[in-house]
Amino acid sequence: MALPRVLVLVLAGGAGGRLELLTEQRAKPAVPFAGVYRLIDFPLSNCQHSQIADVWVSVQFHPTSLSQHLANGRPWDLDRTHGGLLMLPPYRGTERQGWVSGTADSLWRYAPLVRDAAVDALVVVSSDAVYELDYREVVDAHLGSGAEVTMVTTEVAADDAPRYGIVEVGDGGRVRDYAYKPDEPRTTTATNEVFVFSPGPTLDRLEALAGELGEAGVEDLGSHLLPAQAADGLARAYPLSGYWRDVGTIPAYWAAHRDFLSADPPLDLDDPRWAVHTRGGRHSAARMLPGAEVDGSLVSGGTRVAGRVSGSVLSPGVVVEAGATVVDSVLLPGARVRAGATVTRAVLDDRVDVGERATVGGDGDITLVGREAAVAAGSEVAAGARLPDPEEE
To answer: Are residues 102 and 218 in contact, defined by beta-carbon separation less than 8 angstroms?
Structure first.
């Protein structure tokens, strides 16, 4: 029996403003994670392990940073003669031309292409979360349910619930109510930005909504489409019992790295049964030089450490000189911490240079230093600061 035809649409076009300086010069899905990965590696690896070979990526902001990483899709087995990886940038030339203004608007603009693909199920996913999920298992559950949409859900903390689409789930997994980023959530069951749609009925509904809303637009999936499907009793929930972490803010990004520093991390990124694949570079082995002290950290290839590193993530090419100290921090590719400097509870973007005896961060909020910034020798960047300061630009 042939497998159902499945198309995955990865929504990778958002500005990613909540990640602040990390997305000033790169697309949010291209943000590094856990040393050697990028955020988009997680949904693409899920596609590979789910045996889904038709993957479209909707891009918009800083597309070059993402295109360079994805290339022809080979790490995820998407370099195919038929199907495989397809990049979807904004375009001109039809009535649906122009800049995408929301996730549902993106789906509306590409609706003719989705119809032409004639697939049995459309999986729409975001690319700012860390998780493992067999999309095909969700598709199988969806196709047997009679639903128009299946929403993958997870439990979140009560104080974090207003950031998400929140659902009330009744008997048989039917979604009784859907509220998009409510001020006062009625539950802590959140959609985790993975949706399986029945393409025909969903696109018909989307066209009707676009006609009704006119210039106001259909906005995000949670603005009009998902509430309408839930109100008509055509939405089902699929609970994800495993690890899921949204990393769309600086505190969440930092906290997610902490999860992977434990002796028993929530996901084994090297598990051959569900490995997370990425476009690898050529890096030599990490070098621990005389005097180096490293504990509870992730150290990538191509790094040189002569100082002390504790509870931190070092991406390829990072240098920690003799007498320098890095604690509870995330250093992205090429960052350098010079002799006698201290970095604490901070995220340093690509090629940041922390001068000798400088101090970055401390106890308190996470400090963020933007790409290629130079911290002067002997200077101090306070805990919770942003360098460069966006208010001074």
So the answer is: yes
CATH code, residues 6-259: 3.90.550.10
Tokens standing for residue 331: 């250093």
Pairing type for strands 374-375 and 353-354 reads parallel
Q: Which DSSP helix (H) or strand (E) runs through 49?
A: helix 41-49
99 CA to centre of own chain: 21
pLDDT of 130 higher than 70: yes
CATH superfamily of 287-392: Hexapeptide repeat proteins (2.160.10.10)
Q: For residue 24, which phi and psi values (nearest 5 degrees)?
A: -70, -30
Question: Residue ranges of the domains in the chain?
Answer: 6-259, 287-392
Walk across the sheet containing 367-369 and list its strands: 298-299, 313-314, 330-331, 346-348, 367-369, 386-387
- 0.90 cut: is pTM over it? yes
Largest CA distance in the chain: 69
Query: Which of 53-62, 317-326, 341-350, 357-366 bottoms out in mean pLDDT, i.e. has the lowest?
Result: 53-62
What pLDDT does 17 receive?
83
Q: What are phi and psi of 132, to 5 degrees?
A: -120, 135
